[in-house]
Amino acid sequence: QVQLAESGGGLVQPGGSLRLSCAASGLIFRLYTMGWYRQVPGKPRELVARIASAGMTNYADSVKGRFTISRDNAKNTVYLQMNSLKPEDTAVYYCYAASTPNYWGPGTQVTVSS
């Protein structure tokens, strides 16, 4: 059974930083594209960043230059380093493993507010 567990969310002031982690189990982690989506109430889920098994990365235009996705295959963990956070980054952030259908974590709340 595949399980994804996010951690690291919380409340941060504008301009601050957070690092999200997603620990995966029940799959051959190194073979999967991993990534992060985010969602605010009333809006569709938005792709934030993804990292392929070979390490190639993609980012939403809104986070380029501020967020960095990385993975540690030895720890079955994917990370999202978020810097220069803005109030519009406030959302629930979901980790996923690309499959048909995708595997999802339960989400972690990120709130950017003064």
Characterization of the model:
It is a single chain. Helix content is 0%, strand content 50%. The protein has no helices and eleven strands. The protein has strands at residues 3-7, 10-12, 18-25, 34-39, 46-51, 57-59, 67-72, 77-82, 91-97, 103-104, 108-112. Strands 2, 4, 5, 6, 9, 10 and 11 form a seven-stranded mixed beta sheet that branches. It is globular, with a radius of gyration of 13 Å.
Question: In short, what is this structure?
Answer:
The chain has strands at residues 3-7, 10-12, 18-25, 34-39, 46-51, 57-59, 67-72, 77-82, 91-97, 103-104, 108-112.
Break the fold down into its secondary structure elements and pairings.
Elements: E1 3-7, E2 10-12, E3 18-25, E4 34-39, E5 46-51, E6 57-59, E7 67-72, E8 77-82, E9 91-97, E10 103-104, E11 108-112
Parallel strand pairs: 2-11
Antiparallel strand pairs: 1-3, 3-8, 4-5, 4-9, 5-6, 7-8, 9-10, 9-11
